[in-house]
Specification:
The chain is an alpha+beta fold. Helix content is 57%, strand content 6%. β5 and β6 form a beta hairpin.
Length: 374
């Protein structure tokens, strides 16, 4: 008799998925690869070839690239990164970019950091997924779904495991450190960010004021709990959305205080891997004569980066005279009002932090679901 865990593993390896939803992650990784290559090129032009100064190779000297070869590698990485961004031969470009990035990191461990290593690993795993179609992040009215990019799902599963591992490592590292649990580490990050001139969200004064408040200890403990929630619940079916909501809040907090911004952006983008490949399986129907309806439709088009909704004006039916906006779910059922708002905040990652509150308020309202027959 085959063990249950082995059957599940075989099912995960044999499953297929439409990788259209991975387009935002592919673009972020491509931009990260391009930025890293550009930084390497600037260092080569201003500082010089790393091999001419102190460096720490983790490879044999024969495998450390010469200056001419290194220059060619940097140029090749920039071209490959652009191919990843536009989606042209993206999987091949991702695989080559990952291999070259890891080779350069091993050639000089002085330049090895967690963000660059995570970028290289993510690119390698993303190359195992069907992520190639060029999709628009803003869909037009009644736009047909993009052509499916069906492939094996094990690459997506590995990306999820990577994300879970990152959050587990973060939680365990802070749990083991008494200073981190007490908020001292977070306070130090806040003071460093203030000394550096603030972040894109908080001014130096706001960061200093926050660092001096006792609430820092509670915030640090909340970050640990959020990371543990992602590590323990994100791979579950019913617990996935609450865990991802906690992950989005955690990453936004880390970005707001300037904690490893490059790493945090990439870790946040990795959360895309937890989405399901159900492109435009839901619909947003709005009243084109209503300003509110048009505004919500525009907002959904601008933020639905995973392509979950087909947005179009009302068809003429009995609902048009009573509701400005109606969400058609995957099963064909329809929702309006706060129920529709809860659906949007539950399915569009940017609004995940608002989902618990909206869903809680919606649970006290009457109605929200509308019949299919009108």
């Amino acid at each position: 008799m085959t063990p249950r865990w082995l059957s599940r593993l075989r099912g995960a390896l044999d499953a297929t998925v439409d990788g259209t939803f991975l387009a935002p992650l592919r673009v972020v990784v491509g931009l990260g690869l391009a930025l890293d290559a550009a930084v390497r090129a600037r260092e080569l032009a201003t500082v010089g070839y790393f091999g001419d100064a102190f460096h720490l190779p983790l490879l044999s000297d024969r495998l450390v690239p010469s200056k001419a070869v290194y220059t060619a590698l940097v140029a090749a990485r920039l071209v490959l990164a652009l191919l990843v961004v536009v989606g042209a031969r993206a999987r091949i470009a991702l695989a080559l970019s990952s291999a070259l990035a890891i080779h350069v990191l091993l050639a000089d461990a002085v330049g090895l950091d967690d963000a660059r290593y995570l970028l290289a690993v993510t690119a390698g795993l993303l190359a195992l997924t069907p992520c190639e179609p060029r999709t628009s992040l803003v869909a037009a009215d009644d736009a047909p779904p993009p052509p499916p990019a069906v492939g094996f799902a094990y690459g997506v599963f590995l990306l999820r495991v990577l994300s879970v591992t990152l959050h587990a490592a973060f939680a365990l590292a802070w749990l083991r450190d008494s200073d981190a649990r007490a908020g001292a580490v977070l306070r130090e990050h806040l003071l460093r960010a203030a000394a550096a001139g603030g972040t894109f969200v908080l001014s130096p004064g706001a960061l200093t004021s926050l660092a001096e408040r006792p609430v820092v200890g509670f915030v640090a403990k909340g970050m640990i709990v959020a990371a543990l929630a992602v590590a323990g619940l994100a791979l579950g079916g019913r617990t996935r959305i609450p865990a991802l909501s906690a992950a989005v809040v955690l990453r936004l907090c880390l970005l707001a205080i300037g904690h490893a911004p490059a790493f945090s952006v990439l870790a946040a983008a990795l959360l895309v891997a937890f989405a399901k490949g159900d492109t435009q399986a839901r619909s947003v129907r709005f009243d084109p004569a209503s300003g509110l309806g048009r505004a919500v439709a525009t907002l959904v088009r601008a933020t639905d980066w995973l392509g979950r909704y087909a947005v179009s004006p009302w068809a003429v039916d009995g609902l048009a005279s009573r509701h400005t906006l109606v969400i058609v779910r995957r099963d064909g059922s329809r929702a309006t009002g706060l129920a529709a708002a809860a659906m949007l905040t539950r399915t569009i990652p940017l609004f995940f932090p608002f989902w618990p509150l909206v869903a809680f308020v919606a649970s006290f309202t009457k109605g929200g679901d509308v019949p299919n027959e009108v």
